[in-house]
Amino acid sequence: MGFGNTEWFTHDRFGMFIHWGLYALPARHEWVKKREQITTEAYRQYFERFEPDLYDPWRWAADARAAGRKYAVLTSKHHDGFCLWDSALTDYKVTNTPISRDLLKEWVDAFRTEGLKIGFYHSVIDWHHPEFAIDDIHPQSDDRAFREREQGRDHRKYTGYLDGQTRELLTNYGKIDILWYDFTGPEKSRESWRSEALVTMIRELQPGIILNDRIDYPESADFVTPEQYQPSEPPTRNGQEVVWEACHTLNGSWGYDRDNLNWKSPNLLVRMLIDTVSKGGNLLLNVGPTGRGEFEPRARETLAHIGDWMRLHGRAIHGAGPSEFEAPVDCRFTQRGDRLYLHVLSWPMRHLHLQNFAGKVAYAQLLNDASEIRMTEIDPESKAQNTHMPGSAGELILELPIQAPDVLVPVIELFLT
Known about the structure:
By secondary structure, this protein is of the alpha/beta class. It is built from 11 helices and 16 strands.
């Protein structure tokens, strides 16, 4: 796979996805134009009223950093074709809306200053461009008269537009760490985007960039992107494990969706992060800002809870990865050098039994407060008797407090011998 250097990526593990554009105004999902079959003419009302006067990318960046994120990816253009930067190739861009500023540039400056690596999500689909070949994903795909009228579109002209906008993004904003294309539908292929030539240009413009896997050119991808599900095991290609990044929403929608109340709890999100890293993956967790340019209160509250956990447990995530050791039931292991992190998803009563760990752990402590966890090895010949546990060959027993630590997921740090 690919040619980019993913060492920083697999070290940092946790990123922020941000979906933001005109669809924040209807606030009914980022696919609202398709879902409601809105015409380009009717959709223009959102373009004419896009005025995120409360937009503060510095606050976004501070929230991302406080929540333990090490990199961020923002939508430069989603499927509706609206551009969040001052593209020279279209009038359908943010500098022609009431806000009249290059919001992408401001975002890049803020996040880069905060010390986060940056990436652009860029849709290869474009429902606004007049030469994008109509397919079943298009909002007017069910309009037979529209399809007949537009059947003469020259998709090669759109591909040139895609190429030119990619060049703008990778030329005008300094070093870009990730390019996250989305996506190749069933009626399109790598030929639709001239993917080979596109990737060649990308590598020439940004030699250190890493690319995802959604332009039907798997040989060029540096990582794969399972979306809205947790893999049961590390993804593979041709029988080999690959670099991967799970991408998830906070509430089921990528863009701001006012009435979607299907929010994941902070506890679930932290467990998803742990599960991902324990399998060698990254987590790209999304926020959809409002039409005024803010993270809504519940999103900020969720970020704060995750940040509280990451402040105490970040070293079990950043720089950590899977372990060859098998974790006990209701637990996950991550490992960083000679430190093994036992994430306890369900707190047991008094004892945690680690099979085949006898003699392998020099010291154990709760990670949240560095308080010692005592360890016991019982003679394997010892029999159960009233309050005395039986022994088991090779078993190490961790003696736990009855009360679990007041954190989303307790972590025990094991110092290996």
